[in-house]
Amino acid sequence: MATLIARDLAPDLVLFHGDVHTLWPDLPRCAAVACKDGRVVALGDDAEVLALAGPATERVDLGGRTLVPGINDAHNHMLELGLKLSKIQVEDCASIAAMVDLVRAAAERTPPGQWIVGEGWNESLFAEGRLPSRQDLDAATTRHPVLLKRFFNMDVVNSLALELGGVSRHTPDPQGGKVERDAAGEPTGILRAAAKLLCRGLLPAPTPQEAVAALDAAGQAYLAVGITSVLDPGLYPWEMRAYLMAREQGRLRVRVNLMPSWHGFREEERREELEARAAGLGVFSGLGDEWLSLGGLKMAVDGGTTSRTAWMFQPFLGEEKVHDYNRLDPEDLREFFARGHELGWDIGIHAIGDRAHHESALAFADAIQSTPSPRADQRHNLIHAYFASEESLQHMARHDIAAVIQPTFIYFEGDDLFRDVGAELAHRYKPARTYLDRGIRVVATSDIPSTAHYNPFVGLYSLVTRQSWKGTPIAPQEAISREEALHAYSVAGAWLTREEHRKGPLAPGFLADMIALDRDYFSCPEEEIKEIKVELTVVGGKVAYRR
């Protein structure tokens, strides 16, 4: 009987002969890890951990490789990314001509009249040095409506799509958006911010089966780069239902925290519907289990810098005034924050412009100080958090308001800051060092598909080196250490979703989510960080990916 009990208690998996960085202060480094029932049960040297193994224990020899906690990408539009994978991939296009070629190829295999959709273009990569236009897309096809999404907050469409959307020289700009026009007053095909909806609203919605397949595809892609958990923000009910279906069907490959959309995220939402969603559920942040849980409420006040739709104190370079592209009436910030706080929800707000950051931090402080909450603490956060004022830094530090930043933006669009906001603000961009030095939590994420790639090692490289893809230093004084960067990409996200008691570091009793790398992240040359490949991904004590 004793033998059977001992065998039942043996680990399911032992990883040994490794260089294990746990991010657990009690034992920062070791050689081996044992996992049982999805949790870490032992850490130590090879001999003592291997001695725990039984006949059925799976043994993985790491061959000296570095093992670290799994990546927790705590602002990742997983469902959107999965749907994007079935469309034209344009994020790597180095020219408008290359993007047009992809549309032309898609037109050859797509029945006339059906939409051709792509996503991820970035004009700063284009050899032509300009924005694409409807005429560019018309050269590929006039028989299909075409819509190509920029990586954030701007679309380019062809003439047929404009026609179907009822967009002409006489169409007024919608509130919070802009239809770009040429010198003759005709639409160029560029639709900014809220104007995107004029054509996006015509796209067919994915079926539930397509949504589940998209989640499956995204999950498999994430495992290959070491992502074991995500937070998907700004979700509608049908999107959250897709996650439930994926879980039931065994097609949820990574752990997910769901962040419902609330005020100002979707321009067409009505206030009454949003209030009902926040209050009528009768629950608040934290509901769920280790695979699928409910997070905070997602809000958004402005747009972005490179799309020139952020809420700024001063106009973008070359412009004469600050345009109103806000997705939320700034006058409502305090009321909405107070309402969510009172109901016990954590709130994350998209705030990119320097004024958006300042006003949001102040509104959070006011809500926390003046409104009672059923929670003993709160996990409110500024999403993106580009440019911090001294006053907003003080509010964030005093009230434990986190900065949820996207380091890949430094790499892929950092050079455009000088074009859009100038050198002074560029020098204050995503101030990770300042945040940490002020005691402000930093959570590092991808925000895919609002950036070119979800690869966390590009983000880690960006945090450590502060260099763009062109090698341009972007606020280099804001660089942080490799360990701080990895902490921001793993442990910090668990605090954001109220899971710090079970997820983040490799520690006894914590979820056994970890990744083995093809080189030592902590000692390889800085330039190699972005080249790191994941050799093995373990989720819940089971090998989920092998390279």
Task: Explain this structure.
With 547 residues, this protein is α/β, with parallel strands linked by helices. Among the domains are: 2-70 and 534-546, Roll (Urease, subunit C, domain 1); 79-200, Diaminopimelate Epimerase, Chain A, domain 1. Helix content is 31%, strand content 21%. The protein contains 20 helices and 25 strands. It has a six-stranded mixed sheet, with no helix packed on it. A six-stranded mixed sheet has the order 9-10-11-12-14-13. The longest helix has 17 residues, at 354-370. The chain is globular. 54% of the residues are buried. Residues 1-7 have low confidence and may be disordered.
- CATH-scheme architecture of one domain: Roll
How many angstroms separate the termini?
40 Å
Low-confidence blocks of residues: 1-7
Q: Determine the CATH topology of one domain.
A: Diaminopimelate Epimerase, Chain A, domain 1
Strand order in space, largest sheet: 3-2-7-23-24-25
Residues in helix, %: 25-40%
Global morphology: globular
Strand content: 15-25%
Q: Overall mean pLDDT score?
A: 92
